[in-house]
Design goal:
single chain, Rossmann fold, 2 domains, 6-stranded mixed β-sheet, 10 strands, L-serine ammonia-lyase activity, magnesium, pyridoxal phosphate binding, serine racemase activity, Ser/Thr_deHydtase_PyrdxlP-BS
Length: 321
């Protein structure tokens, strides 16, 4: 089975050394209100404090460092609903490489503005996965650059896995890690690193009911993309899990927990009000999975699971909407 994994723990360890000078080691903090609602000790990995406002800078920096080693690089291209675009723009700027970011017209204005502020060139497209891919291909053909996928480029996945390394350094007693899943780059990177460092640890993905392709894929035993673009407040996880992430999710992620739109909204507001942390609704997906007690019935969850690391993946919320 493991033959089909595109990254291993050595890739994550190498990424950690590369990206350390470029990123924040974000705090792992407790909020008693959230722990009380969850019925166990919840440790929040505050990637909303990360550079560019999300974990995406980890994978983007690792990927760009590899691209920068090539002499022939003209530019980098990606498509993103926002956070990955910002991260690639900033990482590309750090390495002195132009970045073209294809973004759906529906992306929050704050995310488009942020990409531009990091020196990225925004190219807008219709808000479907198909249109994003097509536009990115067009730009690539025109500019002749290197494509960096938000979740399926192996160096990106390895970079996201550094989250688990940091979390287990900050608290070696974590029994489980919960993180939202969209394309699957973060959860697969986390699973590879966490299970290598601590084989007994459980890794759970959280997903909106409206965008439940990872949940369906785990049940079916094969990658099961959604037929149409989902409508969810969690704009960071609308995409389908990718071909590179799927084998790792299949083999190493213990279970997938789905939550409703109402639960996501309530969880997001709870974090704003009680933890005093500005998170985006995509971060609320993981919180909802934990406070809704749905985790208690997840596969592999038992009384031995006392300490849970929860990734707050980002804080790029349009406060005006």
């Amino acid at each position: 089975k493991t033959i089909s994994h595109c990254i291993n723990f050595n890739d994550v360890k190498a990424a950690y050394e590369i990206i350390k000078p470029f990123i924040h080691r974000t705090p792992l903090i407790q909020c008693s209100a959230i722990s009380k609602l969850a019925g166990c000790n919840i440790f929040l990995k505050t990637e909303n404090f990360q550079k560019t406002g999300s974990f995406k800078i980890r994978g983007a920096t690792n990927a760009l460092s590899h691209v920068a080693k090539k002499d022939s690089v003209k530019c980098v291209v990606t498509h993103s609903s926002g956070n990955h675009g910002q991260a690639v723009a900033k990482a590309a700027y750090s390495f002195g490489i132009p970045a073209y970011i294809v973004m759906p017209t529906t992306s929050p204005q704050c995310k488009k503005d942020a990409v531009k502020s990091y020196g990225g060139i925004v190219i807008e497209c219709k808000p479907t996965e198909h249109d994003r891919v097509k536009m990115a291909e067009t730009v690539l053909a025109e500019k002749g650059g290197t494509f960096i996928h938000a979740s399926q480029t192996p160096q990106v996945m390895a970079g996201q896995g550094t989250l688990a390394m940091e979390m287990l350094e900050q608290n070696p007693d974590l029994d489980a890690i919960v993180a939202p899943v969209g394309g699957g780059g973060m959860i697969s990177g986390i699973a590879v690193a966490a299970k290598a460092l601590k084989p007994s640890i459980k890794v759970y993905a959280a997903e909106p009911e409206e965008a439940n392709d990872c949940y369906l894929s785990k049940i079916n035993g094969y990658r099961t993309p959604l037929k149409k673009t989902p409508v969810t407040i969690a704009d960071g996880v609308k995409v389908t899990i990718g071909e590179n992430a799927w084998p790792i999710i299949r083999d190493l992620v213990d279970d997938v927990i789905t939550v409703s739109e109402e639960e996501i909204k309530q969880a997001t507001v709870l974090v704003w009000e009680r933890a005093k942390l500005v998170i985006e609704p995509t971060s609320g997906v993981g919180v909802a999975a934990v406070i809704g007690k749905k985790l208690l019935s997840a596969k592999g969850f038992d009384n031995s699971v006392k300490n849970i690391g929860l990734v707050l993946c980002g804080g790029n919320v349009d406060l005006c909407s």
